[in-house]
Amino acid sequence: MQFGLFGRTGVKISVVGLGCGGFGGVGSERSLFGQGESQTEAFALMDAAYEAGINYFDTANSYGGGRSEEMVGDWLEQRGHRNEIFLGTKVGTPLGPGPNDGGLSRQHIVAQVEASLGRLRTDRIDLYMGHQVDDQTSLEETLGAFTDLVTSGKVRYAGICNCEAWRLAKACSVSDTHSLIRFEAVQNEFNLLAEGAQRETLALVRDQQLAFIAYSPLAGGVLSGKYLDLESPPAGSRLATRPQPYAHLRSEHVVAQLKAIRKVASGFGMTMAALSYAWVMSTPGVTALLIGPRRPDQLTDALAAAGARLSDAQRTAIGAAITHAEESF
Questions:
Q1: Smallest Cα–Cα separation from 133: which of 106, 112, 161?
Q2: What are phi and psi of 120, to 5 degrees?
Q3: Which residues pair with 289 in a beta bridge?
Q4: Beta-carbon contacts of residue 100 (< 8 Å; ≥ 6 apart)
Q5: Mind listing the domains of the chain with CATH numbers?
Q6: Residue 45 pLDDT > 80, yes or no?
Q7: Residue range 58-117, pLDDT digits in tens
Q8: Per-residue model confidence as pLDDT tens digits over 71-87
Q9: pLDDT for 240-278, tens place per residue?
Q10: Beta strand segments in 15-106, E
Q11: Is the Cα torsion angle 245, 220, 59, 241 positive or negative in sign?
């Protein structure tokens, strides 16, 4: 396993992180709580990840209605690996119908960090992230709350997910102006089908020495190469179980892109998944990618990609193939 610097902090995390969003549910989707991986299955995944050298585990207070945090906490306690794991969780996704059941206000953050610490069976969270931006709460309020949590020792570092480059730049300015801690990391979707939206963010994180954590490197499994018929995904797949986040991918031009990527991958002697992972990891500014395997054997491609880097010529060939596929429509 390779390790990369977590921004400017000096901490080193595995370039592949274990996403625990499928433990006890399917992400934050309330209708799917109780589905996903059982505790036995989650333990098998965490064991395999740990044995492979992965030291970064990522969860959220909303995943599985809190069950994901509970499973991670149980595993950490039973295995005794807390000090070896860089533990990340998130706050902000609405947990109920009440007006203050979500968001990044001080009130919500302070209440939820205690709940997460309890479920995770730990006295500190290494990376505490806003799960999404909150337009109704000032950055001063949010960063002030995170600053107090860091000062108290309950949180080591703060970050933000699904954040635009301009807002992240504004947050850096607010931190400097008001002597507050910075967001040391941003976690955004990044893959071969969604790379354009992150160009400015990647330029910013390189300039500001922030960590960039790429989630959904396979676009919810679409880039795995296991299926190209987006209209009839296999039963039990993420695309079938939770189709809403991937609705924008159901188009003929995306299918054409997938076929082009598969052809290039074959020419490189790689699986489509391995190429997709390697492309993310070889992008300047990317610190780590998150994977969400459902079985230990699904770690294989991601772990292989952790040690692989695509050459400039290979990246150019991939880009040209995707562009040609787009221009055919």
A1: 161
A2: -85, -5
A3: 16, 214
A4: 107, 108
A5: 3-225+283-310 (3.20.20.100)
A6: yes
A7: 999 999 999 999 999 999 999 999 999 999 999 999 999 999 999 999 999 999 999 999
A8: 999 999 999 999 999 99
A9: 666 676 666 767 778 888 888 999 999 998 889 989 999
A10: 16-19, 56-58, 86-91
A11: positive
**Count of alpha carbons within 13 angstroms of residue 291, beta-carbon side:** 33
Do 59 and 68 form a contact (C-beta atoms < 8 A)?
yes
Vertex 251 angle, CA 246 and 256, to 5°: 110
- How would you write 219-261 as a 3-class SS string? HHHHHHCCCCCCCCCCCCCHHHHCCHHHHHHCCHHHHHHHHHH
Whole-number Å distance between alpha carbons of 6 and 305: 19
Q: Which helix (H) or strand (E) holds 65?
A: none
Pairwise CA distance, residues 78 & 108, whole Å: 30
Residue 188 structure tokens: 């955004």
All residues at 6 or more sequence positions from 279 whose CB lies less than 8 Å from its CB, including other chains = 192, 310, 315, 318
Query: Measured on CA atoms in the order 218, 221, 224, 227, is the torsion positive or negative?
Result: negative
What whole-number distance in Å separates Cα of residue 254 and Cα of residue 260?
Answer: 10
196: left (phi over 0), alpha (psi -120 to 50) or beta: alpha
Q: What are phi and psi of 234, to 5 degrees?
A: -60, 145
* The model's pTM: 0.91
Q: Give catalytic residue positions.
A: 63
